Amino acid sequence: MDGADADKMAEMAEPHRKEAAGSRHEPGQVRQTSAAGKEEASSKTTTLMEQVVGRENLKRALRRVVSNKGAPGPDGMTVEELTPFLKAHWPRLRGELLESRYVPKPVRAVDIPKPGGGTRRLGVPTVLDRFIQQAVLQVLTPVFDPAFSQSSFGYRPGRSAQGAVAAGRRHVEEGFRWVVDMDVEKFFDRVNHDVLMARVARKVEDKRLLKLVRAYLNAGIMVEGVAYSRIEGTPQGGPLSPLLSNILLDDLDKELERRGHRFCRYADDANVYVRSKAAGERVMESMGKFLERRLRLRLNRNKSVVDRPWKRTFLGYSMTPNKEPKLKVARDALQRARGDLRQLFRRGRGRSLTRVIGEINQFTRGWTGYFRLAQTKNVFEEMDDWLRRRCRWLLWRQWKRPRTRFKKMVQLGLAVERAKASAGNGRGPWWNAGASHMNASVPTAWLAAQGLMSLSVERRRLEVAV
């Protein structure tokens, strides 16, 4: 919920608080006021479709979709074509939405690699459906989000992965030094539509909006030009899917709260912090049964474990085993980053170093911003060293021939005799990138002058800003 929505709700609530504090009604009169309040709340959720197609809501949704850009859906319409299309067709589309006649198009299947191996299937909706979903999301978020758990951090206004990681560290610091790392098996593919819609209907009485949400769940998926129907799951890729996942998993959050557990959940990634391994195993077993019985979901028994937090990875972070644990970048997250950077360097063999550095900086700035909570600074220093060596590796490969290498090193200030001895040494590019002659020819200051960002310096800047 944004600030404007919060202020509006506060203003609406104020007269009721004053009336309750200052009145002396008979019991029957109090019940009438309560019933009137419920009737008013009900009327608001029976006219949500009017809010969805409201002018200001649609303007916000359009700005968001256009700013997010994104690839076309199966119909090929681009983001740039959306505004002209809406100008020509919106009166008809508005009527279809208000009269429950609108039928969403199938989504386009896109398989992307998962960090831990394998692939994850995304469903890319048409640009028009992204726009409508965004409009629905903006109306439903104030309805559901205020009641979500404080331990839920994924895809919520004002919350982030960093908040989840910081909360997890606090739980460990307070003595809960075992973690139940729960992995829901193929969550986005296995969401039961009936179970989910029952939870949406708890707070939404507008049957038109319920029908539209159900239509988005049932929309087919295009695979190599063929549309397949869908009877379960909510593919990642549309604006509405994250909220729907939070609505469903809010039951899990409430059950954990009812039992008094310390936990952090980010989408379908949940960590429960306990004081002993035995307690963790009991939680794993009972919550597995709860998910199957109440939500028709299953834990992945191969990936769900009870272990020490410093032996696990949560949202790319790990921590030290100290009594006051420190957050650090998890090893697999560091390896993935280096793999992505290697690809950028390989694509840069035929381009100027400054252009490659621009792409590297874009990646490392985002990476450093995400891991700004890491309290072990050596990883940023090591990454700086590795990036500088990669830049020298790229230059050595671009220079190709011994004569070119000799010429370039002399131009960069290396002594002639040393350049001559080094240019034709027969060693590979990576060895030469770490050798003293390349460090002397291409020092840190020279790379900084070409624009290469230092992760260590950027981290310190973010630390001061926070």
How would you characterize the overall build of this protein?
This protein is an alpha+beta fold. 58% of the residues lie in helices and 10% in strands. It has a four-stranded mixed sheet, with no helix packed on it. A hairpin with a 7-residue loop joins strand 9 and strand 10. The chain is globular, with a radius of gyration of 28 Å. It starts with a helix and ends with a helix.
What's the structural blueprint in terms of helices and strands?
Layout: H1 3-22, H2 27-45, H3 48-52, H4 55-68, H5 82-98, E1 107-113, E2 119-124, H6 127-144, H7 161-173, E3 178-183, H8 187-190, H9 193-200, H10 207-218, E4 221-223, E5 226-228, H11 241-258, E6 262-266, E7 269-274, H12 277-295, E8 305-307, E9 317-319, E10 327-329, H13 331-347, H14 353-370, H15 378-399, H16 402-411, H17 416-423, H18 429-434, H19 436-441, H20 444-449, H21 455-465
Parallel strand pairs: 1-4
Antiparallel strand pairs: 1-2, 3-7, 3-8, 4-5, 6-7, 9-10
Helix pairs in contact: 4-6, 9-11, 11-12, 13-14, 14-21, 16-17
In short:
The protein is an alpha+beta fold and 466 residues long. 58% of the residues lie in helices and 10% in strands.
Which labels suit this protein?
alpha+beta, 4-stranded antiparallel beta sheet, 21 helices, disordered N terminus
